[in-house]
Structures are given as C-alpha cells and as structure tokens.
Amino acid sequence: MSTKAIRFGIWDGKDRRAATWKLWTESGHSDVYLACRELGGELKASLHQSGYWHIAYSQQGFKRHVEGAIPSQKSRFTDKWPRPKAIAEGVTLAFRIVTPYSSVTSMIRQRDYGIVWIPNAPSAKATEIDIIITSSAIHVSSWPGRNSTGTLFVGSFALDNGETVWAVYRVVEMPDLSSMNKGSGGFYKGRTRVDLESDNLRALAFGLEPDGSRTIYDFAVSRKTEKL
Asked: Would the pTM of this model clear 0.70, i.e. be above it?
C-alpha cells in the first residue's frame, strides 16, 4: 500500500525546532491522518472519508500508557466530531496547528532531516499551519488562502476520491488562552512528577473552533522553580 505524505515543522533557521508533524494518506481510500512525529504514532487524528473524524490513541498505546492510569480517559478516543461545514464552496478547513514563537526550543537531530521547514514567527507572534481539503468540483489556481489571507505553501497531495489536501501557513497574533479550561493533570503509566524535571519538555493542547474545526497548540514547557 503506497503512502502520500508531508512532513513539516517550524525552525529558527539554525538548530532549534518546535514539534514536527506528518500528514498523510494511503492508497485505496481517501482517509487523511495527522500525527505529531515525537509521539511515535501513539496518538493521531483520523479524518475519514465517511465524515466521521476523531483523535485517538493507538490500541497498543492506550493499553500501554493510558488505560487505568488516567480515570477520565475511558476509551482510546479523546475526541470525535463530524467533518466541519465548508468555509467556502468546496473548501474545508480541517485542522489548525498553532505554534507560538517561543516554542522553537528542541534541538534538530538526524531523524529530523527530510522535513519541510517553516520559518519561526517573529517575537510575540505565532505560526498557524492550516490543513485544508478542497473538492475536485472547484478549480484551484493556487494554494488556499494565498490571496485572501496571505498563506504560504507547505505541501499538498491528491486523494483517491479527487479531493486535494493542503498544508499552508501564516503568521498570526499570539493566541489568547486565558479562558482555557483548568483542571488536574495525570500521568501515563510508569511516569511520575520526577519526569517533569526533564529538560526540553513539550506539551500539546487541543481546542475546538467555532467553525467546527480543531486546533492543536504546540508549547514548550517551562518549569517554575521554588524560591529558597
């Protein structure tokens, strides 16, 4: 089974990056998948041709890391939703990935080569990467948003059903996350508070947009130190 894929990430032009991502489809159907590469395939978004979309742990990943350790997570599915309504005729905004400029902190390593690198946003800004699906019924002379919102091209591939999947990006204002829900966290199996003392921690946060699409926020984690 052949695969069409785009691997991309944001970097500082030198040796630091944010999270890296894989967007792909496999021949024989027109489902689309999105995953953070650092998670090793344990968690991914599945945008099925049927219109039933979800974010879920792999079956093995759920049993290995989550089941029984996080009481609020009863199944491997963390979110389910229907394909959002088109934002314009034949155009579906499926996902946003928002990365604040301050999140570009991880060292680039050998396994990161072969990535489409996106330049980091200026200070106090963020980069928004949009995953967009366009219908075969519309004529697209360029990539989505190039003229209307000033997006820049990352990559694209055609699906078996004639639709096209696009990854584009633009610089946006820093997101206001002051209203983000606060709650108690949990640890995967075998993990404890000691693991939070590691350097170069990253975190992903998931959001629901008014238009029905989902957003993933990519953060670098900073630790508060207690004053002596």
From this structure: yes
